Every structure is written in C-alpha cells, then in structure tokens.
Amino acid sequence: MQSKQELVALALSAGTLPGLPQGHFIDGASSTAASGRSMESFDPGRAAPFAVFARGDAGDVEAAVGSARRAFEQTWRDTPAAARGRILQRAAELIREETARLAVVESLDSGKPLAEAEGDVRGAARAFEYYAGACDKLQGDTFPLGPDYLGYSLHEPVGVAAQIIPWNFPISTAARGIAPALAAGCAVVAKPAEQTPFTALLLAELLKRAGLPDGVLNVVTGTGAEAGAPLVAHPGIDHVTFTGSVATGIGVMKAAADNVTRVVLELGGKSPVIVLADCDRKAALDGVMGAIFENAGQICSAGSRLIVERSLHDGFVEDLCRRAEALRLGHALREPQMGPVNSDTQLGRIAGFIDRARARGVDVATGGAETADPESGQGWFYRPTIVDDCAPDDELVREEIFGPVLTVQIAEDAQHALALANDSQYALVAGVYTADFAKAHRLAARLDAGQVYINEYFAGGIEVPFGGNKKSGFGREKGLEGLLSYCRTKSIAARI
Ligand code: ADP
Question: Which residue numbers are catalytic?
C-alpha cells in the first residue's frame, strides 16, 4: 500500500491517480454505462480534467435497482443483524486502512484540502463503526393490551433506498446514508454527484471486500438529470435520502410523490453564528473562521452569517479580516488552509453574488475577488470574503452563497441576536458563543435550527442527529434517529 506522501507526489506530478474506478458498481462488479458513454471529472485546484467515469442513465438505474431488489429480498433483509454488524465493522476497518488513498482521491475530486478530506474519511469510518454497533440493538416495543392480547412492534427495513449525494462532502455524505441503510437491512442504490463520483465507487469496492453480498450496494454515476432523476422516480425505490440544493430537493420530492416514496431532504442553509460580548474571544474567532472558510464555505451547515454584539463588533471583525487575508490558499494536495471551490459554475455563482452586492453599493471589507493557486496560477479560487454591517434584507444575508463569503450583522443584545438569527428561510444549524451557559441554553431553546453548536462550531459527531427545518429540509440523518429513517414500524396485535 502506498503512503500518503507517495500518493500526493504521484497525484501532483501525474495530475491523476492510476486505478480509479471507471464504471458503475452494479451487482457487485464494475460495469460500463449501458449507453457506452462516459464523462470527465475535474481537479478544481488545476481547473483541469483528471479522470473519466461512466455517464449513466435510466438503463443503468434499472439494472442497479433490479440488483438491489433481488439482494434485499433474497439475502440482506434476512441476514442476521449481528452478521450485518460484522460486515459494517470490517468496512470501517478497511476505510481506516485506506485513509490515505481515499483522502487523496477526495481532495483531487472535490478540491478540499487534504487534511479536511482525511477528517471526512475518518468520519466515514466512524459512521460504519457506529451503525455496525447499532445493527443488533434495533429492537421494537411491546404494548400493554391486557392478559388476552399480545401486542408488539417490529422495525422492518424499508426496502431499497436511494442515496443522492452532493459534491461538497462526497464520502462523508455517502457513508452517513449508506451505513444506517445497510444496518437497518436495506439495499442501496447511490448516485454520487457528477463532480465527485470516485469515493462512493471506492466505498462500494471496500464494502464488497468487507463481505457485503453483491447487489446490496450499487453505485450509479452520471448527471442529476440523466441518472439522478430516473432513480428517484423509479417505482422500485422505497426511500430517498437527498442532500443538495433546495431547488433540486423540491423536484426530488415531487418525483418521489408520484410513487408515494418517503424522502429525507437535507437542503441548504444560511446558518447564523451568534457571538456575544462575554464570549471567549479566541475560541469565537477560531470558530467563526472555521465555520465559513472550511471547505471554502461549501458546506450546507457553514456559519455564513456572523451576528455579533455591538460592543465586541469593531475589533472582532478587524481581527477576522486580518485572519482571512492571512489564509494560505492553494491546491488541495499542497496542504493549504483553504482550497479552491468545486467548479467554474460555483465560482461564477459566488462572484455573481459579490458583483451584484457591489453594484448596489455594498462595501466588501475583505476579499471579493477570484484568484488562483499561487504556485501554478491555476484553479477555481475565490478569496476569503467578509462583508460587514449587512442589512437583514440584503441578498447576501438571505441567500445561500455556498462559498467563502461571511456576512456580518450587529446585534444590540442576545434577544436582538436571536431575532436576527431566526429571520431566515433556512433553519439548519446555529452557533452560539457566550460564557453564560444559562443564556446559551435559553438561546438554544429558541433558535430555529435542527442543531445548535455552543462554544464550538461543528461540535458533535455521528452520534448526533442532523437535519433541518423550514427550507433546509426535514428528516434526520446520523444518530439512532438516522437509523430509524430506514425502518418502517410494523405493529402486531393478537388475541391469545
Ligand atoms: P448543485 O446545484 O450544487 O450541483 P444539486 O442539488 O443539483 O446541487 O445536486 C445534488 C445531487 O443531486 C447531485 O448528485 C446531482 O447529480 C443530483 N441531482 C441533480 N438533479 C437531480 C434530479 N432532478 N433528480 C435527482 N437527483 C438530481
């Protein structure tokens, strides 16, 4: 097995890695697209293609759903829970063994700094480990119907679950959906984003090596329109987990509605980070920086709206700007502090937001320009950007930008901060920095968000349910609640 250093050196010199999967993963084997077509994936750090993969369509989806259905009915749903758990546990071990390769591939494909990709791979291993342990703890209830009756419930697997995966967290989103689905006894057809197909395919290969029977996990690659749409509309799909944009999520929900297929939607966000005057200033600065500049702000739960108490505001924002200007940008494999954005489309979207803001007279405190990898002069980069003292109705405050752009709003006190925080169409996460724990928990109770981070943005792990309210979606992934998404309850009542 090659070391991380060897893989990085190889990827940087060759611009690619040998041995990347090129076909779909269907019925336990690699298969070319039925149409024979393929497409390219780009390295965002060089703005250049680095590998090709299958461009799937309805024909490939048909084969994958058929394979999953057979595997579900003939093998997986009746595989004892403890045996399922052992396979998932083995998968976690294999993911850990392959961390370097998976992370280098993830960095090349998504553009995220290698250290972040390594964290994502560790998170993926944790997801398999966590749900491995949960397989044989999935137990139902008994109901007190009196001496003449027996009442109990079973958690049955839903059946075949589709996973539509975005490009910003390819392996971690795949793992957090696939692991609980398999743990519950479901078979899966996953469709990774066309920008980042490779780690989902590698994950499927690892699961086969871990002992997963053929057909239980299938991966179909291709575009949303050609491969994603026929998958979510397929009558053989019993559940859809979708992570992506609001507009696409609405379309997925409508398509699923025709078959009355259940959906979990994890959509956009415009998450507030409330920083109160009594906070630990350094922890808050670190937290706000990570909340918006990790993965170049391309995180649905990014903390993209800083809401800071007035007495702290001036010096705090000055420090943030200094730190933002000092961030080292570069190709994902050169260990930068911030990498490129994922695509030229994304770069154009981000630049459009800032250009429109400038045109309406908004002052950009720092950043606000496209740039490139200082070493190569290539890549899709946008400078870390901070826009101070924004009006609550400004487009920059209201819309998800999905890039390294932080808006700042000034609050008079905690109540005002709460009102500003909740004034959004989104409600995914919220952060609070204060030394006053009572205040923090009162705010947490009132914040409209699926999860609240206190004194550490992104605190938590696979144990903690994750999902949104309002236009951020519904349903929860992660935690035991995430496992129950893949179950349906059967209640049995008998006269005895
Ligand atoms: P973005 O606009 O940032 O690319 P999307 O929400 O469109 O984000 O993409 C998220 C995922 O949804 C990707 O895997 C994409 O291929 C998929 N997708 C896009 N359109 C559809 C669709 N109509 N049906 C199902 N999946 C889709």
Answer: 266, 300
Closest CA to 127 of 460, 491, 488, 470: 460
Q: Whose CA is nearest to atom 13 of ligand 1?
A: 193
Indicate which residue's Cα is closest to atom 15 of ligand 1: 224
Pocket test for ligand 1, best of 42, 53, 163, 164 (most atoms within 8 A of CB): 164
Nearest atom of ligand 1 to the alpha carbon of 247: 6
Ligand 1 center–CA 221 separation, angstroms: 12
Nearest-angstrom CA–CA distance, 425 and 272: 12
Rounded to an integer, what distance in angstroms lies between the CA atom of residue 116 and that of residue 101?
14
Beta bridge partners of 410: 308
**Count, residues in the chain:** 496
- What the chain holds in terms of domains, given with CATH numbers, is 4-267+473-492 (3.40.605.10), 272-461 (3.40.309.10)
Bridge partners, residue 170, by sequence? none
- 119 C-alpha vs ligand 1 centroid, how far in Å? 24
Q: How far does residue 244's CA lie from ligand 1's centre (Å)? A: 6
| Model confidence pLDDT, tens digit, residues 275-316 | 999 999 999 999 999 999 999 999 999 999 999 999 999 999
Tens digit of pLDDT for each residue in 9-41? Answer: 999 999 999 999 999 999 999 999 999 999 999
Q: Which residue has the tokens 């720092």?
A: 366
d(CA 308, CA 103): 35
